[in-house]
Amino acid sequence: MANPLRSEVVRLYKNLLYLGREYPKGSEYFRDRLRSAFSRNRAESDPQAIREMILRGEFVSRELEALYYLRKYRAMKKRYYEE
């Protein structure tokens, strides 16, 4: 793996690991799934394929952030507004 891509992959892994702390099924479940996904693609050496995987990982990161914001919004709405 090329050095610039390696740093991007490590950054993405750390970011996803941080986001996984609040995962609804638990942080250990998320960490195990994340570790298996990264180790499954460990031997990939094609830079284009690695970039595509990085883009997919960034998409997952944005989706997790949206999930957490929505959960917090729903909790706040439930506290202050009667339905």
From TrEMBL:
Source taxon at top rank: Eukaryota
Location of the Complex 1 LYR protein domain: 8-59
Q: Which family does it belong to?
A: Belongs to the complex I LYR family.
**Designated name of the protein:** Complex 1 LYR protein domain-containing protein
Q: Which organism is it from?
A: Pagothenia borchgrevinki (Bald rockcod)
